[in-house]
Specification:
The chain is an alpha/beta fold and 495 residues long. The protein folds into two domains: 154 residues, 3-Layer(aba) Sandwich (Leucine Aminopeptidase, subunit E, domain 1), CATH 3.40.220; 311 residues, Aminopeptidase, CATH 3.40.630.10. It is 35% helix and 20% strand. The longest helix has 26 residues. It is elongated. The two termini are 30 Å apart. Bound molecules: ligand BES, manganese (II) ion (MN) and zinc ion (ZN).
Length: 495
């Protein structure tokens, strides 16, 4: 799908589908009135007659309009003026995209992207159009015999811009397309079953990305190399698996990037059975999503490469499978991490932190200006925050505030939770430097506090995306989060 900025709407406009935003009470948003004038006031009459109430997300398709500016018009409810916000704007876009994709239109024109929104400027309004259309148009990779999914007819979406804001709209659709494409790749990788998406598969995906973009390099460390580096904690997680572990290092350096890198570390557990501390069977299939942190690092770097963003970013992806077997790590086993600190593994299901701690230590060789790890780390995070916010923990207020702000701007929000010594005390062990679990209470925080022990001298943040990375139920699948948050943050911190 292609996205373009279009200056104004009027008699000369030609489109398969004009998408017109209507508020409750009948007011048309943005360039809606110009389209309606070209249609002889038909939309205003429909609203006045009560055939379209303008409730948020409601849609009405007017097909067969003959010769005028639009072969069809899609009315989209924007809700009350009083509640008009970034949230209602994005919700209206989602409905608009869903309804447009059901029509045979091959191009569409969004005529309300130039309407003022209290908490979204021109750039973001255009960016959201692109992101939402790509999000809705996304189809999961379905492995079904025979059936082929129906091709989508929509290939071009144009976004209305007032002539003075054409530049901002162009930037918005360009960045939105890159973020949308990156997120879609993240979703693809995460949605694949674990018998396809193994650590080796992820390593090949990294290689593919490096072949597609001259600015990306990919290096993959084998088990032997990890052993030589002393990654005893990471390797303990893979001890029961027949799949070889991989440490994937992606380096993106955009033209003109001179600063030390920002390192992104993504949890890549391609399947988490829990190991010997085996999980309950109900819903265990969802543990194929336990590599979404890794997938979001792939997606974010893909977005940056598409944009040629002048920034230096290193992605580190520890990719392993957590399985029980005769060779698996047992509760009570003690391992030595790459940092030299010893860990008593009291629960083999708390494996994310065991691979991330060695990846964090490894990140030091890149002299990072900042390190951000992204992980579906704890069920406790889902209990604490549900599916709307990722959890954010950081040893730097500056980094935390940057991520919180990027989350708001990109509508991919996170919520800060504490790090504190008191929680770290819960990790004490009778036999090693500390244990890998600290009991049920404050589970998301104690997991972050475990990682904190490996970040001395680093400016570091942790994102627990267990609640935001995928949805369960009928629409089960990856969301592509937190790619919008990460890319927004990185674009605001070029160098
Ligand atoms: N991958 C899980 C966390 C998870 C759980 C993500 C549910 C998404 C949904 C992680 O490896 C895990 O098993 N964590 C344990 C930690 C516990 C043993 C301290 C958990 O959350 O139960
Ligand atoms: Mn686990
Ligand atoms: Zn896990």
């Amino acid at each position: 799908m292609e996205f373009k900025a279009e200056s104004g709407a009027g008699r000369r406009t030609r489109t398969d589908c004009a998408i017109v935003g209507v508020h409750e009470g009948g007011r048309l948003a943005g360039s809606g009135p110009s389209i309606d004038a070209a249609l002889g006031g038909r939309i205003a009459r429909i609203a006045a007659a009560g055939d379209f109430a303008g409730r948020l997300g409601e849609t009405l398709l007017l097909p067969d309009l003959g010769k005028g500016p639009a072969a069809r018009v899609l009315l989209v409810g924007l809700g009350s003026d009083k509640n008009w916000s970034r949230r209602s704007y994005r919700k209206a876009l989602t409905s608009a995209a869903q309804a447009t994709l059901k029509t045979p239109a091959s191009n569409a024109l969004v005529t309300f992207a130039d309407a003022e929104v209290p908490d979204a400027d021109t750039y973001y309004r255009a960016r959201y159009v692109t992101e939402q259309f790509l999000h809705v148009a996304y189809r999961v990779p379905v492995i079904r015999s025979g059936k082929k999914p129906k091709a989508q007819s929509l290939d071009t979406v144009r976004v209305i811009a007032s002539p003075t804001e054409l530049g901002d709209v162009r930037r918005g659709v360009r960045d939105g397309a890159a973020i949308g494409t990156g997120s879609s790749w993240t979703r693809d990788l995460a949605n694949l079953p674990a018998n396809v998406c193994t650590p080796t598969y992820l390593a090949h995906a990294g290689g593919r990305l490096a072949r597609e973009h001259r600015t990306v390099r990919c290096k993959v460390l084998s088990e032997r190399e990890m052993r030589r580096l002393g990654m005893g904690s990471l390797l303990s997680v893979t001890a029961g698996s027949a799949q070889p572990p991989k440490l994937i290092v992606l380096e993106y350096r955009g033209r003109g990037a001179k600063a030390d890198p920002i390192v992104l570390v993504g949890k890549g557990v391609t399947f988490d059975t829990g190991g010997i501390s085996l999980k309950d069977p109900g819903g265990m299939d969802e543990m194929k999503f336990d590599m979404t942190g890794a997938a979001s690092v792939f997606g974010a770097i893909k977005s940056l490469a598409m944009l040629d963003a002048p920034i230096h970013v290193v992605g580190i992806i520890p990719a392993v499978e957590n399985m029980p077997s005769g060779t698996a790590t047992k509760p009570g086993d003690i391992v030595t991490s790459m940092s030299g600190q010893t860990i008593e593994i009291l629960n083999t299901d708390a494996e994310g932190r065991l691979i991330l701690c060695d990846a964090l230590t490894y990140s030091r060789r890149f002299k990072p200006r900042e390190v951000i790890d992204i992980a579906t780390l704890t069920g406790a995070c889902v209990i604490a925050l549900g599916s709307h916010n990722s959890a954010l923990m950081s040893n730097s207020d500056d980094l935390a505030n940057g991520l919180l702000a990027a989350g708001k701007r990109s509508a991919d929000t996170c919520w800060r939770m504490p790090l504190a010594e008191e929680y770290q005390e819960q990790l004490k062990s009778n036999f090693a430097d500390f244990a890998n679990v600290a009991g049920r209470d404050g589970g998301a925080v104690t997991a972050a506090c475990f990682l904190w022990k490996f970040t001395d001298g680093l400016k570091w943040a942790h994102l627990d995306i267990a609640g935001t990375a995928y949805v369960t139920g009928a629409a089960k699948g990856a969301t592509g989060r937190p790619v919008p948050l990460l890319v927004d943050y990185l674009l605001a911190n070029l160098g």
